[in-house]
Amino acid sequence: MRRAVLHLQRSAGVLRLVADSKWRMKRLLILCYHGVSRFDEHLWRPRLYMHPDVLRQRLEILKQGRYNLLPLGEGLRRLQAAELPPKSVVITFDDGGYDFYAAAFPVIREYGFPVTVYQTTYYSDYQKPVFNLVCSYLLWKGRDRVLHNPKELGLSDPLDLRTEGGRMHIVRKLVRDADASNLTGVQKNDLAAKVAKSLDISYDEIVSSRIFQLMNSSERAELAAAGVDFQLHTHRHRTPLEEGLFRKEIQDNRHSLQKLGETAIHFCYPSGVYRPEFLNWLQMENVVSATTCDSGLASRRSNFFLLPRLVDTSARSAVEFEAWLSGLAAFLSVRQAAPQIIPAAAGRVSRNSDAAQSVLVKDDGRE
Ligand SMILES: [Zn+2]
Question: Are 170 and 143 in contact (CB under 8 A)?
């Protein structure tokens, strides 16, 4: 029904009217992307990975609609100074996967649009697949199977991979057990290799394909020289509830990014999760803005440490995307907060809903 209404309104020129309105001119739309597929990742998790053709379609809509694409820092400065051009949009990518280097940026470069990458750095320094993602993907690859005798994986029951719920349960158990045992990055990688072996999948091929790996420092340097803006996303893709540990995440992340030249001052909450105390800690680390995964357009009155974005996924139709660009969708939906996580007693965090999977991107690699 909502899509039908959107169609109707577009044909009536309402989208154009809203897009050209004074209301929209005072607002900045910050787009959020995650992965762009190089293989079949978009079939595995369509909310996390987008086919490059869909990305191209989005950029074409931005071009045809004459939207003003601004670099993040400039967009925020001009928002604050009430000097935005009409129809302002900023493009951001979370995490900084190798797929950004290989699949996303080549398309963006064709359009000449500015882009910011919120780069998490642990797996950028440690060039192996992100543990929770590769485990989930491997199990999906074996989705017609039931694994008997999975003792090698530290699991006892037969593992039924035929349903999404079943696979998710196993991934959570693997991640939880790995965290409880304080496994190092190397040990987690060994465990992922065992998961692959139990499914007769070549882990060597997975590793050499660079799937679920992050850009390394030379790839980042190459893109930085081509104009890509790299900003903060924590070192280990996590936000500890203890001030010292939280601030260390920012410091380690910034230290790794510093090699690119400019000091990173913009931040994005990993998995869109924030708490009131984080805002203070970010300010103490001289961070000047922070984006969430809550839907909306930013205005001058927005809290610059809780900036809304539009998380764009393959699940969103082109019409819906246009409705967001114009600003109309902001009228049709109340600001939607992304799922948050609840701190558990032991100081670790646990996800409070399955919906969190859509924004849960990387696990917290331990050194
Ligand atoms: Zn992230």
Answer: no
CA dist., res. 327 & res. 156, Å (int): 52
CA 349 to chain CA centroid, nearest Å: 19
pLDDT beneath 70, residues of the chain:
1-12, 333-336, 341-367
pLDDT in tens, 131-149: 999 999 999 999 999 888 7
- Rounded to 5 degrees, φ, ψ at 101 are -65, -45
Q: Which two tokens stand for residue 215?
A: 């850009």
**pTM, rounded to two decimals:** 0.89
**What does each C-alpha distance from 142 to 135, 161, 164, 195, 215 come to in angstroms?**
11, 7, 11, 10, 27
CA 335 to ligand 1 centroid distance, Å: 21
> What phi and psi, each to the nearest 5 degrees, are found at residue 10?
-65, -45
User: Which residues are in the CB-under-5-Å shell of ion ligand 1?
Assistant: 94-95, 270, 361
